[in-house]
Amino acid sequence: MLRRCAMRLRTFGATPARRPGAARRLSSSEKVIHKDYALPNPSWTKDLRLLFDQFMKKCEDGSWKRLPSYRQNPTQALQEFQTRFVDSKFKKEEQMSKAQQFSRSLEEGLGFEYVMFYNNVEKRMVCLFQGGLHLQGVPGFVHGGAIATIIDITTGMCAIAEGVAMTANLNIDYKKPIPLLSVVVVNSQLQKIEGRKLFISCTIQSIDEKTLYTEATALFIKLDPDKPLT
Asked: How confident is the model at residue 145 (pLDDT cuts 50, 70, 90)?
């Protein structure tokens, strides 16, 4: 059975967001401007800020693109997804309007701090990840489930570049534990496409590339709009 991927609808091609700050409301139209969590905040370590700046420079020539990230899906994107893939009898718009992205539901610095960059030519997604104190498993190290989550998010975003998709299979080989608050590089790349199947590889390494923490492979299935999920 397909399981849900922590996906971000309409992330590619989204309008660049302003610098971090509370979501604000425009008095004229009552349109909510959501905070972009893929931008530096006070909890980011020096290493994460340095890597962020390096990748932002790569974005200047258009070869790479930074992906914004929000706690909630834009209303229009949510409605479009439900229209295409969810049976009408299972839609609960009022409840869904309150839903938050799992990886962005914790306070800054305590959970998943990350930013993603995508290279369309290489079909590669790079996630700069810092695991917060509330992601602890074995004392002092990031929980294996949290590592699986950031892998699923990164490979999922790599898959969604090809169309709306969900995780069908995720295989993870944990090599070494990741220290809490350390910064690692999650590198994901599309390997091949077979029909609606998307095969993706992933590694997690230290920022100096000397330590391999995790290896993974993932299979995603592009959704068929003629077949509802429920």
From this structure: very high
Joined together, the tokens standing for residue 62 give 């258009």
- List, in sequence order, every residue forming a beta bridge with 200; answer none if it has no partner: 190, 218
Q: Which token pair is 120?
A: 């369309």
Asked if 146 contacts 110 with a C-beta cutoff of 8 angstroms, the reply is no
Q: Domain count for the chain, please give it.
A: 1
Length of the chain: 230
CA 92 to chain centre: 24
In a domain, 19, yes or no: no
> Do 195 and 224 contact (CB within 8 A), yes or no?
no
Domain range for 80: 38-222
How far apart (Å, rounded) are the C-alpha atoms in residues 178 and 204?
A: 9
The answer to whether 152 is a known catalytic residue is yes
Given 36, 53, 87, 152, the catalytic residue? 152
- The whole-angstrom separation of Cα 185 and Cα 206 is 6
3-state secondary structure of 218: strand
Q: What CATH number is attached to the domain comprising 141? A: 3.10.129.10
- Token pair, residue 200, equals 């993706």
pLDDT of residue 60: 96
Residue 211, amino acid: T
CB 127 within 8 A of CB 185: yes
- Contacts (Cβ under 8 Å, ≥6 apart) of 140: 179, 180
Report the mean per-residue pLDDT for the chain: 84
